[in-house]
């Protein structure tokens, strides 16, 4: 994006990310869930967030559906609007990470280039791409909001997976087939990943999940 701001000065802050992290007792990073509508992004992001929250972690969930009610309410589903949607959520995530928070995002984020551009905003350990690799047929069968039915009926144009593309990640940190594995197992796998990559977690430990989905 072209930066049209001029005559603006960057202010060094007295408090840094490191200060926030030390106060919180854990590192901050982004868990970026991506996948088709109905692949389970909102369900899993909420459950994983709950696990962290219950253990005293500072967390925040940015769900595409919700962000589109406010900050991104001016955006539709054209390619350009989706790109801007991802860019903005990426920038908001950066602010949260700077504030020492573990951010979870649940957006389709269909374009590889956009996800990679967000990744580039962060250090290598601070961006965890979680690809919910669920076959279109399964998502369509679930159709939790009835949107696939509408799209097939021609009432919802540019629907991802039907007449708008989804580009699979090439090297995500985590890939889970949510058509094959149950909700509980998926949560366990994500938390296990975080436990194993404990370099991010400073002096705080993370217990194995107790899930009642
Ligand atoms: N045309 C079209 N295509 C895809 N999705 C649509 C569309 N129109 C509305 N919706 C609803 O919007 C949710 C996706 O918003 P996102 O911000 O995640 O989309 S994107 O990342 O900008 O592609 C998506 O939420 P999820 O089902 O949770 O993925 C839908 O509820
Ligand atoms: N392994 C799984 N992971 C996540 N959701 C699952 C799984 N198995 C079944 N589901 C169901 O699939 C639906 C996914 O919907 P949702 O979380 O809204 O997806 P998305 O946010 O990707 O559109 C929910 O009804 C959820 O209960």
Automatic annotation (TrEMBL):
InterPro entries (UniProt xref): APS, APS_kinase_dom, P-loop_NTPase
Pathway the protein acts in: Sulfur metabolism; hydrogen sulfide biosynthesis; sulfite from sulfate: step 2/3
Pfam families xref list: APS_kinase
Coiled-coil regions listed in the entry: none
Reactions it catalyzes: adenosine 5'-phosphosulfate + ATP = 3'-phosphoadenylyl sulfate + ADP + H(+)
Sample GO molecular function, one term: ATP binding
SUPFAM superfamilies: P-loop containing nucleoside triphosphate hydrolases
Residues annotated as the enzyme's active site: 109 (phosphoserine intermediate)
Class in the EC hierarchy, top level: transferase
Superkingdom of the source species: Bacteria
Family: Belongs to the APS kinase family.
Protein name as annotated: Adenylyl-sulfate kinase
Naturally occurring in which organism (per UniProt): Geomonas silvestris
């Amino acid at each position: 994006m072209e930066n049209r701001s001029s005559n603006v000065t960057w202010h060094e802050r007295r408090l840094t990310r490191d200060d926030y992290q030390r106060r919180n007792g854990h590192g901050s990073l982004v868990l970026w869930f991506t996948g088709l509508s109905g692949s389970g992004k909102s369900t899993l992001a909420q459950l994983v967030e709950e696990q962290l929250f219950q253990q005293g972690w500072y967390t925040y969930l940015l769900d595409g559906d919700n962000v589109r009610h406010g900050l991104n309410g001016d955006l539709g589903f054209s390619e350009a609007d989706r790109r801007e949607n991802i860019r903005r959520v990426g920038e908001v995530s950066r602010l949260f990470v700077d504030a020492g928070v573990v951010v979870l995002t649940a957006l389709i984020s269909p374009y590889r280039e956009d996800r990679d551009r967000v990744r580039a905003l962060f250090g290598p350990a601070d961006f965890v791409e979680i690809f919910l690799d669920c076959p279109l047929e399964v998502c369509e069968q679930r159709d939790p909001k009835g949107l696939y039915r509408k799209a097939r009926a021609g009432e919802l144009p540019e629907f991802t997976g039907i007449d708008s593309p989804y580009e699979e990640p090439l090297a995500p940190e985590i890939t889970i087939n949510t058509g094959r594995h149950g909700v509980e197992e998926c949560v366990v796998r994500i938390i296990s990943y975080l436990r194993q990559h404990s370099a991010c977690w400073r002096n705080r430990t993370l217990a194995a999940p107790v899930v009642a989905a």
